[in-house]
Input
Amino acid sequence: MARIIGGIATSHTPTIGFALDTNKQNDPVWAPIFKGYEPVQAWLAQHRPDVLVYIYNDHITSFFFDHYSHFALGIGASWPVADEGGGPRALPSIPGHPALARHIAEVLVSDEFDLSYFQGKGLDHGCFSPLSLLWPHEPVWPGAIIPLQVGVLEFPIPSARRCYNLGRSLRRAIQSYPEDLKVAVVGTGGLSHQVHGERAGFNNTEWDMKFMDLLTGGGNLREGTHVNGPKVQVVRARTVTATPLGPEPVLIDVDGEGPGRLPARFEMMPGALTLRC
Output
């Protein structure tokens, strides 16, 4: 039977891959980042997983809003690097594992998760930026991956509870696969995550650690839904005024644009906006 031998969580900022490609290992800014990956590199080299089930999100590179799913499972036999506008990075394609992917699909659908499936698409920095640092890849990769793309860029997005339950189903799927495989589960993304504006690149370590605690034993964030509890109020409004809770500047993000900061006043078409607050 397949065995889950570990789990890895990592940032997937594209600059990790750029730093690797331009040999920034000894750069004073980048050296601590490379150093931080060394224990994970050593663990992967020691335990040598056969397959990485790789949970990430695409950045409108190979997926677009004309057909955008909550959970898209990669079933292909090979995965190339996507071209994100400046040409694909000089990395070899990585093998997939269609048989395990098919088994995962069967189990998740039996658990009432509605999946979509893809193949023949390139994977962007959400996958390859950290993967190129975690696993050696010259001349070939040491194992295979099964990508699972989570649609978090177009609302409504999956709730924390939905993702948590998907993880539980995914565990059952992997552990019930009859072939003797060593599988590691990888999740990529970001916590303190602002990609433009005055606070781009800012890391709020204190909040990151608190957030991780809420995800695990110290809180119930993983049980959250978009609207949860009797105290949630649903109101209709034409004018909405938003003010910051504290003295720290709060920038506004509207569909990827940064028009300013709070406080701000928004006017809507009558009856067009439903607020949950």
Remarks:
- The chain has a mean pLDDT of 87.
- The CA atoms of residues 56 and 268 lie 34 Å apart.
